[in-house]
Amino acid sequence: MRGSIQHSLRLAKGTSAARRVHSNLKLAADNLGLDEAQLRALPAAIRAHTARQIADGVRLSRQDAGEWVDAIVQEGPGFERLSETLAANPGTIILGGHMGNWEILAIYLVRRGVRGVVVGRARGDQDWLTKMRAQHGVETLPQDASARETLRVLRSGRILGLLSDLEARQLDGEFVSFLGHPALTMTAPAAIARAANAPLLPVRCVFDTQSDRYQVHVDPPLWSRTDLDPKASTTDLLERMNQVYESWIKANPEQWAWHQRRWWTKPGSFDAIPNPAFRREKRARDI
What we know:
seven-stranded mixed beta sheet, disordered N terminus, alpha/beta, two-stranded antiparallel ribbon, globular, 11 helices, single chain
């Protein structure tokens, strides 16, 4: 929680993160479909959403937060796709993003009986996020876990939760268009989906001001194309994945993580170096 508070302070006016928000908004402005007045108002709305996330984090740290999650979250558009997809494909990859509140989403799905793990940065059992998730029954698989571990989760019939909308230089990646500009995009979602013959099911949990509650939206599942060679199939799936993220951001621009260095790495300036475990698995298996 201390890290979340510090993060909020970094978004204050005049900080480097605040300047990054403005820089990213300027870069993506032509692709957001907003007028000048809406763009000017967006930084303040982003700060307000960050404040809500902090308050949510404090609430989630309590042992009885599960009941609060049940009360604050409701089913949104396409929610029926969740049970339909999981029934047909027990080992499904839930494609999340840094949109709305992804921690609430994970807890809500567990409380609805969805079995699986989320992939994220984990600093051991004492990490605040890892401990908070664990107390609500959400298991964390470290981001540097091998491909074999992720495939084991899917092949056991559990879901794998991925947040794949940001740059991760330590993982294998390629440059794919994102809001009109090349962005280093991790290839793991497409590679794992193809290896496990599993769909990517886009799910987000966004705050709805009219109901004053979060809503869980579920988009149609994305499948790897089998008529393309592995490299072309990976690129195609990543392009469609980023298009989903773009649609989320356009619908709720104030609820995305604009403070991140999404377009920091430029094509030709850096070759993504995957972590050793992932690289070994990739060499051993053509995924």
